[in-house]
Amino acid sequence: MAPASDAAISTAAVSARDLRFTHPGARTPTIDLDEFTVETGQHTAIVGPSGCGKTTLLRLVTGALKPESGEIEVLGRNTTRMTEAARRTMRLTEIGMVFQSFALLDYLSVTENILLPYRLGARTENEAPAGRVPAIAQSLGIDHLLERKPIRLSQGERQRVAIARALVTCPKLIACDEPTGNLDPARARGTIDLIMSEADRIGATVLLVTHDHGLLDRCAQTLSLGGDA
Amino acid sequence: MIGAVRIAAAHARHRWGRSLVVCACLTLTIALPLVSRAMTSAFDRELRARAEGVPLVVGAKGSRFGLVFNALHFRRSDLDTVPLGLYDELLNDTTVRAVPMHARFTAQRVPIAATSIEYFDERGLIVAEGRPFATLGDCVVGASAARSLRVAPDSTIRSDQARGLDITAAPSIEMRVVGVLAPTGSPDDNAIFVDLETAWLLEGRSHGHDDADTIDREGEVIGRTEDFVSLSGAVVERQVVTLENARDFHLHGDRETLPLTSILVFPEDDRAQTILATRLNAGDGYQAVQPTQVIDDLVASVVRIRVIFDGLAVVLGVVVLLLVGLIVLLGIRVRADEIATMMEIGASRATVAAVIGSELVVLALVAAVLAVGAAAVAGMLASGLLLQLAT
Amino acid sequence: MLRTLSTLLIAVAPLCLTACGSKQSQAPTRTIEPIVVATTGAHASLASRIADGAIDVVCILPPGTDAASWWPAEDDVRRLQSAQLILLNGFGLESWSSNIALPRSRVLDLSRSVRIEPIIMPGVTHSHGPDGDHSHDLENPYVWLDPALAIEQTRAIAERMSRAFPDSAEDFEANAAVVVAELSAIDQKLKALDLGGRPIAADGPQFDYVARRYCWSRTPSTNAIPLSQVPGIGVHFPTAEGCGTDLIDALNAAADGLADAVGG
Predict the structure, then answer these.
(1) Nearest C-alpha of chain B: how many angstroms from C133?
(2) Is residue C22 a contact partner of residue B183, using CB atoms and an 8 Å limit?
(3) Is residue B38 within 8 Å of residue B382, measured between CB atoms?
(4) Is the model more confident about A27 or about C107?
(5) Residue A73: CA count within 13 A, CB half-sphere
(6) Which of A105, A130, C75, C131 is deepest in the core (most CB within 10 A)?
């Protein structure tokens, strides 16, 4: 392993080497990657059959999981050498996340849901810069729903709220875990288009976990896990 | 941290039913000891303040509590009365000052304290409106009684009939309000003050009717000799005393034996007090008690009751804490997905704990404020309430 | 929900504040005046002689008024209530006293402090129902006209005045001794009279206590028969109850008049 690796100036948003991760109790490693690089702005899809470790890889990238061995460099920093607190801060401030079931908090209004990354931060103000939320809401077409609770939103509206939450911190990396899982192909495509265009607008790189091969053409790179899918 | 509190508050609002139950349980747990403490200390404070103003109370032998509450709080007691002669005797004792008290009647459920005009001086009462009582049937009303009865100088109050079904009982008498006292924050605020003579009128000891010599209506005179007239019950007794007819009221019986329910005694020094108390307590019919001592005994027994309340509060506290703990644990389980999402987004364990915990803290704070409020209200209502329990 | 709770708290808070701040302490506005109020001229004059100008003595009865028929007006009640000492003769003379709110501890009822057996004047008694017999027999109130009883009353008045005004107590006792001496002189004068067993025809009940004291027999007079036609020594005896009358002067005059009548 090259000791100078984390000092190397890289244009990659994500780069990983010799990455190995085994779930507790599993006999074979879930993740075993020699090399994996996502250049900045190069939206990348991670595909593969169920249980092949797509979500695990995504969580290794965001720092929610720590690899057994190997190195991951995210947004120019070696996360394997960072403390857990530093990785959390990075997730909160530089990585936006879109989850499969949107994972909105039903007791919070749309505004509060969007502001969640700020609310959960350790900083005392816990507030987004003024005007950020209305601007994002407007560009996503949900500015009239800000005071509502998620239960009163349609599926599509909820998804936009989830995307808005991922964008509110102006992240450099957007990690999406099956964001279209419950949608029909037409809507799925629309959603991906929305994420991609918003990401392009703020200059973020999208890492998309999906099993929908129809969406791969929107990505510059595809990483297949668990065989030759 | 503020963010976590905001999320917690939103969750508490969203699950309002659960919050209400938790809050109510916590309020009850915190309030029980606070309320019992506030009540007993208000009770203690007020009773003591009241008792400290009067060094000695004299009355018929019997319940010391009954006597003190009659003399200081105008509570009706089942004690025997003492004769006016005893009061006269005390007046002749140059080492003490004495004020008579007759508190047996009510007017619209407000106690009527019949006493002598000196009571106002001894208690430092100020007639804020009108004048002190001057003649039979005059009354001066305490500040809060005037409010609750809606009376002012020149209005009238009718005394409550002593025994509703007893036709031989003295009729109720219409009293003239001549003054309203300035508020004092003591039981004097909720009383109607009249001269002793008025109480005897209420007792039926004195009454007013036309001059027996001039009564000649049929059925009213049973027999008449040159110097004796026997009147029948048909003679209409006066029920309103006015300046004009006051002369028609007269006492039946020996003045010395007219009843008092208690006598407030203000000795000039401890020695005079000891001598008087020893002398009266050695006799058969009377007792002389120190109100402060009686109140000490009463408060001591109330404090003993409070220990039971405190014990209950501890048990209740443990039960409620267990229940609240259970609710929190169940909450964490139910909110597992939500917690996972928060941690995925980047929340630390501490932040998640703050989200869950601050909700409990907010509810506990609200409960504490409510409990303190309840204790304050209880403290205000305490004296009246406990007084009724105590007498 | 939090909003509702806070509204509730705001509503409760002022209640607590008023409860804590309701006590006030002010000095009583009613003042007791350092005066002695008497209901008869006789007692006012005794008290004046004892006081000798040290304190004011007020006779509350208007001049020319009969004490038995007088009833205090509101102003009189106020004066009585503010007096440091009130002298009542008792024996029913002040029939109003039981219907007026007097400051009992500042009242000297002479009928109780001087223990004597009152002379009963026949009056109307009435009774009704279970209350039992009730006598309206009148007691003769003219106690003070007996010099010996007047001495007792003087002593009682002086003792009470000394208690009420302790600063002047010594003067009062000395002045009272003078009054007592003068009354004793009158007593001696009356005692010395020799009626020779003749009855006295007096013009009212005021003579009764004097007659009893000196064992004089007395022909009671009524309004129907003029005094001049009643057999016996005709005597006009003053009541000395009107304000402005001096008891000692009146008794001296009466004793002299009686001596003249007996002598003549």
Answers:
(1) 8
(2) yes
(3) yes
(4) C107
(5) 20
(6) A105
In this prediction, the residues of chain A whose per-residue pLDDT falls under 50 are: 1-9, 228-229
Give residue B6's identity as a one-letter amino acid code.
R
Among B91, B65, B121, which residue's Cα sits nearest to residue B276?
B91
Residue B391: burial class (beta carbons within 10 Å; 0-12, 13-18, 19+): middle
In angstroms, rounded to a whole number, what is the distance separating the alpha carbons of residues C57 and C248?
17
Q: What is the pLDDT of residue C95?
A: 83
C122 near B227, Cβ under 8 Å? yes
pLDDT per residue as tens digits for the range B152-175: 999 999 888 765 555 555 567 889
Tokens describing residue B336: 């597992």
Q: Does any CB of chain B come closer than 8 Å to the CB of residue C126?
A: yes
Minimal Cβ distance to B345: which of A91, A106, A122: A91
- Taking an 8 Å cut-off on Cβ atoms, the answer to whether B346 and A118 are in contact is no
Are A213 and A189 contacting, i.e. CB atoms less than 8 angstroms apart?
no
d(CA B47, CA B44): 5
Q: How far is A85 from chain B (nearest CA, A)?
A: 7
Per-residue model confidence as pLDDT tens digits over A17-47: 888 999 888 888 888 888 888 998 889 999 9
Q: Which amino acid is at A19?
A: L
- C233 phi and psi, to 5 degrees? -80, 115
B360-387 pLDDT, tens per residue?
888 899 999 999 998 888 887 776 665 5
Cβ contacts of C4 within 8 Å, gap of 6 or more: none
Q: Do chains C and B touch (3 or more CB pairs under 8 A)?
A: yes
What six digits make up the tokens of A174? 């957007």
List, in order, residues 6 or more apart from B171 with CB less than 8 Å away. Answer: B161, B237, B239
Average pLDDT, chain B: 84
User: CA angle at residue A163 from A161 to A165, to 5 degrees?
Assistant: 70
- B362 reaches C (C-beta below 8 A): yes
Picking from C26, C101, C131, the nearest residue to B195 by CB comes out as C101
Q: Is the pLDDT of residue C134 over 60?
A: no
Q: Who contacts A158 (Cβ-Cβ below 8 Å, separation ≥6)?
A: A102, A104, A150
Cβ of residue C24 closer than 8 Å to a chain B Cβ: yes
The pLDDT-based confidence of C1 (bands split at 50, 70, 90) is very low
Are the CB atoms for B266 and B54 separated by under 8 Å?
yes
For an interface test with A, the pick among B334, B345, B348, B356 (most A C-beta atoms closer than 10 Å) comes out as B345
More confident call, C258 vs A10: C258
Cα separation, A189 vs A195, whole angstroms: 10
Structure token digits, residue B316: 């209740």
Q: Would you list the DSSP string of A47-94?
A: E-STTSSHHHHHHHHHTSS--SEEEEEETTEEGGGS-HHHHHHHHHHH
CA dihedral angle for residue B137, residue B142, residue B144, residue B149, rounded to 10 degrees = 0
Measured between alpha carbons, how far is residue B365 from residues A85, B360, C7, C19, C139 in Å?
Answer: 31, 8, 15, 24, 78
List chains adjacent to chain A, taking adjacency as at least 3 C-beta pairs closer than 8 Å: B
Tokens of A58: 């995504």
pLDDT band for position B28 (cuts 50, 70, 90): confident
List residues of A whose CB lies inside 8 A of any B CB. Answer: 59, 62, 64, 85, 88-93, 95, 97, 99, 103, 105-109, 112, 116-122, 124-126
The beta-carbon neighbor of B10 closest among A93, A107, A125 is A107
